[in-house]
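Case study B.
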Amino acid sequence: MMPPGIQNDRPVTSTYQRIYAVISRIPEGCVATYGQVAFLAGIPHGARRVGYALSALQGKSSVPWHRVVNAQGRVSPRSGGSCADEVQRLRLESEGVGFGANGRIALDRYQWRP
DNA sequence: CCACTGACGAGTG
DNA sequence: GCACTCGCCAGTG
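Model:
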């Protein structure tokens, strides 16, 4: 496969693509935190990177971005005026993920454990 | 190359 | 429990 002389010592996948790859591994009915995804993507302190990467998706990709929530088990209110946070919640509930009375997800119950 | 930006996390008041 | 601040780091113009 790799012809000699060409060194792929650096992953062709850019940071964003790695993030997408990790998120796409999240099973249905589970959720992951930004920090968790970042860590699995190889960016221990890149929680912001994850959010920024997802903002670039905006539903244009097949990545289940709605399974990514913040460390408090809540969907992040993002800028732009879009109501994606609302859609996210509906999609999660549709997958069996229950929200608390305060609009919070029980991470101890639904958080993805690789 | 430089500056700004940003779906966060953790800590503080 | 909520509002604010600081820190992290790569992408975009």
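The longest helix of chain A spans residues 47-57. The remaining cases will be described in the next quarterly update.
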